[in-house]
Design brief:
Blueprint (H helix, E strand, L loop, with lengths): L7 H11 L18 E18 L9 E7 L6 E8 L13 E20 L5 E7 L28 E5 L8 H4 L7 E6 L1 H13 L7 H5 L9 E7 L3 E18 L4 E10 L6 E8 L1 H5 L4 E5 L3 E7 L10 E10 L16 E6 H5 L14 E7 L4 E4 L3 H13 L8 E11 L5 E6 L5 E5 L5 E10 L2
Antiparallel strand pairs: 1-13, 1-21, 2-3, 2-9, 3-8, 3-11, 4-7, 4-9, 5-6, 5-8, 9-10, 12-20, 13-18, 14-17, 14-21, 15-16, 15-18, 16-17, 18-19
Length: 452
């Protein structure tokens, strides 16, 4: 078989095979020439398609998202708002010397880690107190229905018009060291006063988060931050605080001073973002390409050509490369490309891969990163997956989806030794158009066999 071209990833694999310095080659110089192992390269047409997930993926993230954004490249629209509970620390207490036992005010601060879009876009958000405690042991999804958790017959307790570049403060203040971009939403003072008065009557109601949530106090179950209007940006919110402000007498300063008690949205309590995607049907109608679209949105499904493999020979390397089309629209606000993607079997995904806190095993699931140099996502060797599929087919245990895998944008968490310890869906705003669909991609394979 004449070889005119080898993909770079397979050239590297051949070099490794040729240069493998181990005891498996001992005695090979005494074997007849016709017993030497040779490597054979083949490529197979591989089908891909866009896989619609809409608005529903597991909503497990420490970041909350707020805003609305229209992708200038695809015309798709992403809208997000969120529900958040607040942790009550076990050492919670108000000072004994609150001036006149009077609360000055209450507020929520949403600290913005980063954002996509135009920071000068104007938005309106409403705040509703939750009346149902969200269970941290329940799997919530990004199509969550907020109306199940607050009283829709009541008006919001607060409303706020905001821009991500806060125009209510001076530029000097905005760029001052230590300033953190945030959306500050004042709440009615009486809510803070009611909490303070209840604490003074019985401090045990603030003994811990469980006691606080079951106290029946206003705001104790959390808030729904509902986006009412605006389009052009989405904020990534990494810290959400409910603050109660007061004045108290400071013994150290020998004077009245300002104090604040904070309740924070932490990992111990529930934070759930709701996403709404619009116009995804336009991308699903594209037949000569596939898409990766976050948050939720669209994955890419790959049908591995397992039936075409030559099972008489040994699989050394099976490489899958997904090539990205360059953007056609020039915009200052275009979405980023997914950083890392997961390859996982379709059946494993449907059977709770994320719900069960699974990570990749190098057999039926893999991780790769986007390469700017080649404009590709490359899985350099999925031969163990192919061998698994072949074995299932041979022993009669193959499901109808045995040869189907999904490519999913993910967020990876690594420990200090660079070991992958956590996988979750990527909820940041990202998009990639990939070669595929009716334009079939290639699965590149290196076999090894003994010369006859």
């Amino acid at each position: 078989m004449k070889i005119s071209y080898l993909p770079s990833v397979l050239i590297a694999a051949l070099i490794l095979i040729a240069c493998d310095d181990n005891t498996s080659t001992l005695g090979v110089d005494m074997m007849p020439n016709n017993d030497f192992v040779s490597s054979i390269y083949k490529s197979y047409d591989t089908e891909t398609r866009s896989y619609f997930v809409g608005d529903s993926v597991l909503a497990r993230s420490n970041i909350s998202y707020l805003g609305r954004f229209t992708d200038p490249e695809t015309g798709t629209i992403i809208k997000s708002d969120f529900l958040a509970q607040f942790h009550c620390s076990e050492n919670f207490s108000f000072p004994a010397s609150v001036v006149n036992d009077s609360i000055i005010g209450a507020e929520v601060k949403l600290f913005v880690k980063e954002f996509v879009g135009d920071s000068l876009t104007t938005f309106k958000v409403s705040v509703y107190p939750l009346n149902v405690i969200m269970d941290p042991d329940v799997n919530y999804y990004t199509n969550i229905d907020p109306t199940k958790y607050y009283d829709t017959t009541q008006p919001p307790i607060a409303e706020k018009w905001y821009t991500l570049s806060d125009r209510t403060i001076e530029d000097e203040e905005r760029w001052k060291k230590g300033y953190n971009t945030n959306i500050t939403i004042p709440l009615p003072r009486e809510y803070g006063q009611a909490i303070y008065d209840a604490y003074r009557a019985d401090s045990s109601i603030m003994a811990n988060t469980e006691a606080w949530q079951n106290s029946g106090l206003p705001c104790s179950k959390g808030f729904y931050f509902k986006l009412e209007s605006g389009d052009g940006a989405i904020a990534y919110i990494d810290i959400c605080q409910f603050n109660i402000d007061y004045r108290y007498y400071s013994q150290s300063l020998k004077k009245d001073t300002l104090g604040t008690q904070q309740f924070a949205a932490t990992e111990e309590v529930v934070q759930e973002t709701r996403f709404e995607n619009s116009n995804l049907d336009v991308l699903m109608d594209v037949t000569d390409a596939t898409y990766l679209k976050t948050p939720a949105g669209i994955f890419t499904e790959v049908t591995l050509p397992v039936d075409s493999f030559d099972i008489k020979d040994t699989l050394n390397t099976v490489a899958l490369t997904l090539t990205r089309y360059n953007d056609k629209v020039q915009s200052n606000f275009k979405l980023n490309i997914p950083k890392e993607v997961l390859l996982v079997r379709l059946d494993d995904y449907n059977n709770g891969f994320f719900e069960n806190y699974e990570v990749t095993n190098g057999v039926t699931s893999y991780i790769t990163s986007f390469s700017k140099n080649t404009n590709t996502f490359t899985f350099s060797n999925i031969s163990k997956l192919i061998n698994t599929c072949i074995a299932e087919k041979k022993n009669g245990t193959a499901s109808k989806n045995y040869n189907k895998v999904l490519i999913i944008p993910v967020e990876c968490t690594y420990d200090s030794s660079k070991k992958l310890v956590k996988l979750s869906h990527d909820f940041s705003m990202r998009s990639a158009k990939l070669v595929g669909g009716t334009d079939k991609i290639k699965l590149d394979v290196i076999y090894s066999k003994f010369n006859q």
